Amino acid sequence: CRCLERKKEKERHVKANAQDYNDKFSYADNHIKTSKYNILTFLPMNLFEQFQRVANAYFLVLLILQLIPEISSLSWFTTIVPLVLVLVITAVKDATDDYFRHKSDQQVNNRQSQVLIRGSMQSEKWMNIRVGDIIKLENNQFVAADILLLCSSEPYGLCYIETAELDGETNLKVRQSLTATSDMGDITKLMDFDGEVICEPPNNKLDRFTGTLYWRDNKYPLDNEKMLLRGCVLRNTEWCFGMVIFAGLQTKLMQNCGGTKFKKTSIDKLMNTLVLWIFAFLICMGVILAIGNTIWESWIGRNFQVFLPWNALQSSAVFSGFLTFWSYIIILNTVVPISLYVSVEVLRLGHSYFINWDRRMYCSRTDTAAEARTTTLNEELGQVEFIFSDKTGTLTQNIMVFSKCSINGQTYGDVYDEFKQRVEITEKTACVDFSFNALCDTRFKFYDGSLVEAIKLEDPAVQEFFRLLALCHTVMPEEKSEGNLVYQAQSPDEGALVTAARNFGFVFRSRTPETITLCEMGRAVTYQLLAILDFNNVRKRMSVIVRNPQGQIKLYSKGADSIIFERLDPSSEDLMHTTSEHLSEFAGEGLRTLALAYKDLDEDYFDVWTKKLMFASTVIENREDQLAVLYEEIEQGLKLLGATAIEDKLQEGVPETITCLNLADIKIWVLTGDKLETAMNIGYSCNILRDNMNEVFVISGHTLLEVQQQLR
Length: 712
What we know:
Layout: H1 2-8, E1 12-15, H2 19-23, H3 42-50, H4 54-66, H5 77-109, E2 112-117, E3 120-125, E4 134-138, E5 146-152, E6 158-162, H6 164-167, E7 173-176, H7 187-192, E8 196-199, E9 211-215, E10 218-222, E11 227-228, E12 233-235, E13 239-246, H8 252-255, H9 266-299, H10 317-331, H11 339-357, H12 377-382, E14 386-390, E15 396-407, E16 410-412, E17 415-416, E18 422-423, H13 449-456, H14 460-471, E19 476-481, E20 484-488, H15 492-503, E21 506-511, E22 515-520, E23 523-533, E24 541-547, E25 553-559, H16 561-566, H17 573-588, E26 592-601, H18 603-616, H19 623-634, E27 639-650, H20 654-663, E28 667-671, H21 676-685, H22 704-711
Parallel strand pairs: 14-28
Antiparallel strand pairs: 1-8, 2-3, 2-4, 4-13, 5-11, 5-13, 6-7, 6-12, 8-9, 9-10, 15-16, 15-27, 17-18, 19-20, 21-22, 22-23, 23-24, 24-25, 25-26, 26-27
């Protein structure tokens, strides 16, 4: 049904404050349902699921056979009682599980949200919210539906959200409304808002949104940075207003859920197989006994017709044997163990309580015990054969620290003694004194004084290096008091790099949608922000284009070294080789690396490119492909500045945990975007790779065929 709906809806048209217009399209309401059954469907669906168990199906057939008097020597009562007992016990368990799903759905559907109705904000249940409604969110509230951010209590329509329920990440994300709608903070302006959004149909892509807002004869491009998705929580923002684009089962969160499936554990499959073998054994016994009966009736039985006359059904010895076969199937029914399923259900229940009672799984700090939400959890865990794990934030602490860097062919970050020998950095090693910088972050520690000396000597390469770090990012600053800066970073990497630039004298102070203000060695400098070329998993780089106070247009770019090196001007070739050696050295120490480069842009060329960008950013079809081509065009002929190296420490207990999992013969895969050397270093430090392994080898193929050949 959902697939048909998706095929039918090519693009979505949503008009604000125009319910009659939106109702024409029959969009889904905001009611959700995750339960499997209702009162009418419970009995047929549950019985259908239960009769997928071979023993249940066998006993149903047996019951039908026992109702035939010619072959049944046992009362049908002896079969129906255990069968009904098993079906009822399982049905009660399934009904209880589904009741809690219904209860959860009801709780979510009855949550309250403030909706703009006829000129005033009214409290409304979530399930009554409809596409096109304008709703108000307050701090720490869950987002009720997928909404387009219109304005917020923060300057420039900014707001912060936590997306843990969508992607598991607890660090805050920044969302920003269009400049055109960011000042609509009062009810009157919101009532007058009649913009129409034309966007993609419902889909399950959490990181992507393509749409255009048509309002007051203007077109405004919309992307994921303007959307708040259902499941997010508003944080550090007093209030915000948004317009509902997708509701209920059409929200991206629900599109990713899928239907509730009937799952069979390996124990269920094993029991089905065992019962089939037992059933086959029973058939064999029945056939042998039926053949014996036919032979006996042919040779001996007919001699007793004087005392036991044959009736019409016994006119043939073969037919008598056929009836006897079914009689034996009924008589020997205890061979098939229907009680096995009951025993297993009781064991499952017991095991789930053992998990709940496990003291080693109790967290005293939060007073939280483990909770098995399904009785089959124990055997489901026992089936685990492979673990696919992310590295950053899962194996590591996700606390990034700026550790080393390479600028213009010179490395910084190591400490040397008077004999020019490298010294290991410990807690006793003296830190660099940043007292020359009133805006420094006192928690930041760096141990190589030569980098501060280079900054003080106004080395142009070093200054441009830190200027890039202070400009090329998506961090939002919050100045709680004069000089007391707090950075809200979407990724800890960016936070670490911007904090490093801050301490070395290039302080990121504030941003608006059109400007970025830095404090460079004590002087306030405002850059005009002309374009942001976003990072994504394909590009593996991010760029910003700014105009400095002198009127020069510059492009600053940072990203994976393999990507940046491909786009360098030939004049940077020698520096590239030197920096590449430094990167390999950093990666060998398990550090996360990025390459930095810049480019001066010609005014006329940039004007032409901007016009192309404006056109591409308002197209619905293939918008991302067209933008990628434009980004690729301008990010060529870059000049290399250097590279950064960030440390991300492993969490406590990771090597020990992986050792235990290896003992359980579980195969572990770790996904990382690091360089090969970094990945190998992390592999050894967390015990995925071990010194006692015979041979550690690298598969570097880019096609299926290459990988197959290398594995062989």
